Amino acid sequence: MRDRVPWHGRQALVRVVCLLALFVPSLAWAGPQAIDFNVSPNAVAAGYSALLSPSGFGFDLYGLHHSRRGNVFAAGIALHANADPGGPPVRVSLGVRALDVDSFLVHHSGGAVGFRLGVRYVVPQYNRIGFGGSVVYAPNVTSFNRLARFAAFEGYAGYYLLRHGLLYLAYRHVAAAYDTTPLVTIDSGFNVGFRISF
Fold first, then answer.
1. What is the pLDDT along the chain (198 residues), one digit of tens a residue?
2. How many CB atoms lie within 10 A of CB 43?
3. φ and ψ at residue 15, rounded to 5 degrees
4. Which of 8, 65, 68, 78 has its CA 20 to 30 A from that of 176?
């Protein structure tokens, strides 16, 4: 059981840890930052994001590990803004992510550049309640090595226990296709997590 995670999956993990070691200290001066962490029975995911400019330009790191199906590691950039300046704040982010996707089921790995859309909304009359979600998609033309395409969706509903601390329930579905395989599910199901902003 100790060798369930293929070596190339461990290499991907080392690469992301190195990215964190390089970038996170240098972003300490950045604007608002957030750490996100969630778990399900077979998967754990974590993310770090920071705004780099007042215009809403930001940077993020993300990692997902499923104990039986695979790993997804990503680093991205995005532009965040209020999509409805005259009304309740609807935060929208548009960006790209560099992806490293490793499937234990088919023993393939590959990379891609994915396009990401994210939305966050806090109910004005009940500002402790928040909703949101994101979609990441990488078509064949932006995928390489053995990876043919990648798609991920996540939606959540949460409650702000603290002003900058959100506890949430989310549903996530992550899938990838490789050169010689149909679409393979890397993670699918509900998870519980928290997001801390600072």
1. 333 334 444 455 555 555 555 555 555 555 679 999 999 999 999 999 999 988 899 999 999 999 999 999 999 999 999 887 766 689 999 999 999 999 998 989 999 999 999 999 988 888 899 999 999 999 999 999 899 999 999 999 999 999 899 999 999 999 999 988 888 999 999 999 999 998
2. 21
3. -60, -40
4. 78
Is pTM beyond 0.90? Reply is no
Instruction: Give backbone dihedrals phi and psi of 32, rounded to 5 degrees, phi first.
Output: -55, 135
- For Cα atoms 176, 179, 183, give the angle at the middle one, nearest 5 degrees: 30
SS3 track for 78-92: EEEEECCCCCCCEEE
The 8-class DSSP code of residue 1 comes to -
| Closest to 176 measured CA to CA, from 41, 72, 76 | 72
